[in-house]
Specification:
Length: 270
Amino acid sequence: MGFDPLVGGDRLVDLGCGPGLYAQRFAARGVSVTGIDLSAGSIAHAVEAAGAAELEIDYRVGDYAVDTLGGPYDAAALIYLDFGVLPDAPRDRLLDAVRSALRPGGAFVVDVHAPPRWRLPEAGLHVGQADGGFWRPGPHVVVETTYRFGDDLDVVQYAVIEADTVTTYRVWDRAYSAIALRALLRRHGLAVEHAWEDLAGTPRRRSSPTLGVVARRLARSRLGRPREGADVGSRRVRLEVDEVTDTVDGHGTGAADSGEVRGDPAEGRQ
Ligand SMILES: C[S@@+](CC[C@H](N)C(=O)[O-])C[C@H]1O[C@@H](n2cnc3c(N)ncnc32)[C@H](O)[C@@H]1O
């Protein structure tokens, strides 16, 4: 994949670690893992599973969009497409916190849905009935409706109907093109080094429904001054140029800017 994997002794923070599926795999390879999850139930399960496997993992119940993440870490991972549910403000706060928690050159590993969302098969209306399950322990009906807003934003609304109540849940999800994700991460001092269809390293295709990237914390980042520039017709226009000069300790960022992401015709959509 062309990506240096973590080795024994490296430090990883697994954001939204859930029951610790990835945390355990890394810990088994000698990586020092901190796992953070909002769900006390998931963390309890993760602690139990780590104990059974005789692995030492620092699990914490916490909100990665609010809490201090600790560190410094060699890598931070936010795996399984959860990044897209974050509204802009907590997302931006999280990216700043991730950057602060990483050592210079440390890696942020994240996956997202890729636009356009209408490629996904689950658009529309689904009705399901169960005697118990994910939403409720007893009998209920779930009416699931997906609404799409442009190519990159959707909300799935779940109406959970019981004998005498209806409760509605809405899950928003934003998709990011490679260009959009790279620009966003760059604004937060993280330079995309690798991009694949997923974090297993599947090569990207025009129709890839997901995008997984590794971005490096920039050692220095400097916003350039807005530049007086191009002529458009007879008007002189001011270009707001996001000119970032950066170096990553031990890693050139040239790959991020000229590698497999750029030149992908799929990006013409953005
Ligand atoms: C889709 S699951 C992925 C779990 C794990 N990364 C995996 O791939 O197996 C998302 C996890 O993120 C957790 N989560 C969601 N928002 C969170 C937040 N703000 N802070 C911490 N954990 C959060 C959820 O509780 C859930 O366990």
